[in-house]
What does this fold into?
Amino acid sequence: MLQLVLFNVTNGLIIGAFYVLMALGLSLILNLSNVINFAHGNFLALGGYFAYVLTPYIGFWGALLVSPILTAIFGFIIERLMIRRVYMRDPVYSLLLTFGLAFIIQDVCRYIWGPNGLPMSIPDTLATPLSADLFFITWYRIFMVAIVIAAVTGLFLFLRHTRVGIRIRAGTLDLDTVSVLGVNVGMLRSFNFAVGSLLAGLAGVLAAGQIGLNPNMGDDLLMPSFIAIIVGGVGSLTGTLFGGLLIGVAGALTTVFWPAASEAVIYVIMLVVLILRPRGLMGEEGLMT
Amino acid sequence: MSTTTVTVTTAAAAQPRPWLTTAIIWALLLTVPVWLPMLGGYTALAGRVLVLGLAAMSFNLLLGFTGVMSFGHAAYFGLGAYGAGLTLKYLTPSTPLAILAGVLLGGVAGTLFGPLIVRRRGVYFAMVTVAFGQIAFYVAYSWDSLTGGYDGLRGFSRAPLNLGFTTVDIVNNATTFYYFLLVVFGVATGLQALLLASPFGRTLVAIRENERRARFLGIPIERHIWMSFSISCAFTALAGALYALLNNFADPMGLHYSLSGEIVIMTVMGGMRAFWGPLVGAALFVVLQDYISSMTVNWMSFVGLIFVLVVLFFPRGLLGMLQKGTGK
It folds into this structure.
């Protein structure tokens, strides 16, 4: 029983780590540009497919580094070409735009790489389990968690200590003032969108190594990421971080006792939070309205 | 105060000749079984347009006339479908009772959920409604024994209408069923038009135009949005119930958020500030989708392209552009 619980807590932390990467990217874009990126799950899939294509040439490690950057460049271009055109309009348009992009990217992935799952090879050293007793913890899983921790730490350091990061945080609070102070807000938003895409691309590479590739691989992560943001509190990246881990572990633990409800439990958590604490666990008062 | 009055009157004047649009639309709808086969269409397609058009018009009570954006309306559409389907399958073979059950299921769900979201606006309203909408999807998907899970709910069929003095065969005769749909559609959209013309409807438009001013006038904003949301959900559920009757089938994809997105794009495509806009958008979208999916397996790219093109180049929608053309 203990092993079963441990197994599922590990699973939950890993799923939660993916929710966190997705949700942090979504949250960055939402906070600064007031856009929900419905195509974020497809950015994740793109990151995975980039890695799949690149691995034969530059190896897994090279792909791990390059694919997220390619995804970020892709996100940057999409933002420049389309999304920034709808910032000044009713939010319904940005939703519809990213919604349509999600359809297109998913279909193009299916067209290029086929509708069926593709395996992605990872280095042998990562594929072995830690020990016979802990057969469910492969080095790859430890490695994923380490990468996610490094990425999240890097993101928070970037936002706290670099000039661009500080501008992004300031823009989240009051974009007009930041603009008046002489910051190129358009470029700031594009860059911020690219950072969000980078996180999605990174999650895509890691997910590809764990579960393989398919055109809808990001879809199942999108709704939980929304819920991570709602539960954690809109406007708070720390909240998003804890929200993602919370629903990941809660979903996995439910699998032990009541497998059929494992998907439902994260929605129950969202409802409870919305009823008891509408602004989310760490959200600031008034931001959600 | 004066600004509010001005904006509200422009909103009313946005439709220069509403009776003309209405007359054309009804003339076309009433004669569908005559002209549609000549163009190579089939009556079931017209049924789909009516049903999805009703869903989009119901959704537009919120987006176009209250100014809040739900991205989870597929949930209420699907609840209506399952409510009608389950009633026909397990309770009673009565078409009107099935429709009533569907409307109640979707309407009550919307009414219960409403208070949790009425304080949110813009993208946050959308985000919470879409996440909540997925609950209904997972329930239908996981509760195999009742709903048929992934395969959908089968094994029910619409029943003939018993009017007392005569029985109308809406089961086998496609044309009769179309006119049955049209009658329900007419009653529902008539009620919506009355609602929007009422003081309540004018208040909703005032909230859309300037929420802060409306609040200063003493209008309880949250209660109005809640009522608007509940009414919109009940009408959407009605559309869902009709959809179940149309197909004799209810499936979990009818609850999925991708349908919510399609309802929104239909509304925007037709013109969200025009009463009939969503119906026109639904007709365009259904016909395009039907045509594209018969031409290519990559129909998703084209549907996605429709979304992108409408947003970037036709944000006012078809009726919005026509009305702009005829001058305000």
